[in-house]
Design brief:
single chain; Growth Hormone, Chain: A
């Protein structure tokens, strides 16, 4: 573990007095930051491969081969979200240890090793020839327990990254990190889909082999974190505690004090509504291609790679733009386009134009603008969270989005099987309407260092902004 310097209390005072969400008050050398960010990027690359195997189209195809229902597919997406309500508990625990690194490894390590149970189940199935449907329950159970462990560790990881990445570089760095992960997705997803389809023992057995490899790669991603500078959260707590004593600040429960932050509560309202609306339909796009359009998994994974390709092209652009105009304007811009995506799926059929033109185009548009949302979603939390307890803010945000997203996926799974709304097409139309409604909540959120929406729009278009609108903060 790296030696951690003592906090500078004189730096902390003006930050707390102004309410500025900025870089941590302790000093981390530039060399340590560079080394840590390189290691974190490699961590993201290997973690992307693990995620490709244990989530997304490969896992959905595996469950469909086991005759899983749309409701069970909905649970596949909802379980990891709903258990995020445990993130405040994880933040509470993480702030009472002395190492971000070892706390994260203690939870993410077992979360990834749990998938070896499913590898064993697939191996037993291949040897015994028993009914494979029971593996659906095994899979959902593993997702539940691994997601609980991950939820208890995620807030600590976000706090660690907030400490290591300077505020002025967050847009560019996370754009680069996400681009590396997207390039990994672009190359690995089609190859993984092809490997599953071509496996001599069948797709179920092939998925078991890939899952074993994926778990090993997931452990390599955790090993990359050993090269990152560790952060002791007790240093921050000590600095804030001392500063509060000097100012005779009231000792309020930190979790409850979040409820006094009206601006953050407005952000939570946006996150909750948006995540519910998005997850009402997004988990079922791959299901629509695999089941309704009867496309094979190789074709679907090939189309999914268009998402990653578009991410690579656009992430750096969104990162630079977010650094220039702020995260809130970018979220409004990309959200307006993402809200239209479910409507575009209504024009998809089994004809050659839809399969070879329309679906790739939808995935390209989705990947391009989802890159901006994924980047700014985390960055705006870092911008609004106070310096003394970022993990608690991240955890509460994750709990809200987890529960709302889980409800969306679960409800979507039930609605997808109902003729009253027209099945999946009706579900897509409903999701689009709710996405536009959710965007209205974002207009009330204020972000430090962010340009007003109209000023940001003119800045993006390289036009001279109207001074009256900028002055009034429109």
């Amino acid at each position: 573990m790296n030696n951690l310097p003592s906090p500078n209390l004189e730096i902390l005072k003006p930050l707390r007095a102004s309410g500025l969400k900025s870089d941590p008050p302790w000093k981390i050398s530039k060399q340590e930051i560079r080394t840590s960010l390189k290691a974190s990027t490699m961590d993201g690359v290997f973690a992307a491969i693990f995620a490709n195997v244990t989530t997304g189209v490969l896992l959905i195809n595996f469950l469909l081969k086991l005759d899983a229902t749309p409701v069970q597919i909905g649970f596949l997406s909802s379980i990891p979200m709903v258990v995020n309500f445990l993130q405040p508990v994880g933040a509470y625990m993480a702030d009472r240890v002395q190492s971000r690194r070892w706390y994260i490894i203690a939870f993410f390590g077992p979360a990834r090793l749990l998938w070896l149970i499913l590898v064993g189940g697939i191996g037993w199935l291949s040897w015994s020839g028993n009914d494979p449907h029971y593996l659906v329950a095994w899979t959902l159970g593993i997702i539940l327990f691994s997601s609980i462990l991950a939820a208890l560790g995620l807030a600590a990881w976000l706090s660690w990254m907030a400490a290591l990445v300077p505020r002025r570089l967050r847009g560019r760095y996370f754009g680069l990190r996400n681009s590396a992960a997207s390039l990994t997705n672009l190359l690995s997803v089609p190859l993984l889909g092809l490997a599953v389809s071509a496996w001599p023992g069948g797709t179920i057995q092939g998925y078991g082999v890939l899952l074993l490899v994926g778990v090993l790669i997931g452990l390599v991603s955790l090993a990359c974190q050993s090269c990152m500078t560790d952060v002791n959260p007790q240093i921050t707590n000590f600095a804030v505690s001392s500063d509060q004593q000097e100012e005779n600040a009231p000792d309020l429960p930190k979790i409850l004090s979040v409820l006094k932050d009206t601006n953050f509560l407005q952000l939570l309202l946006y996150f909750g509504l948006w995540t519910f609306a998005v997850n009402l339909s997004s988990p079922f796009f791959n299901l629509y291609m695999l089941k309704n359009l009867a496309l094979d998994v190789t074709t679907v994974t090939f189309y999914t790679s268009f998402l990653s390709g578009a991410n690579i092209v656009m992430l750096v652009l969104w990162g630079k733009l977010a650094d220039r105009v702020g995260n809130r304007p970018v979220l409004l811009l990309v959200g307006s386009v993402i809200a239209v995506i479910p409507i575009l799926w209504l024009g998809v059929g089994t004809d050659s134009v839809s399969v070879w033109v329309w679906i790739p185009l939808i995935n390209i548009v989705s990947g391009s603008f989802a890159a901006g949302y994924d980047l700014c979603y985390g960055n705006i939390q870092m911008a609004l969270a106070p310096i003394d307890r970022p993990a608690q803010y991240f955890a509460i945000a994750a709990a809200v989005t987890g529960v709302s997203g889980g409800l969306g996926s679960t409800l979507g799974g039930f609605l997808a099987g109902l003729d009253i709304i027209g099945g999946l097409p009706g579900l897509f139309a409903l999701s689009s309407v709710l996405r536009f409604i959710a965007l209205l909540a974002l207009f009330f959120v204020q972000e430090p260092h962010s340009q007003p929406v109209v000023q940001a729009l003119f800045s993006i278009l390289h036009f001279k902004h109207p001074p009256i609108l900028v002055k009034e903060g429109v």
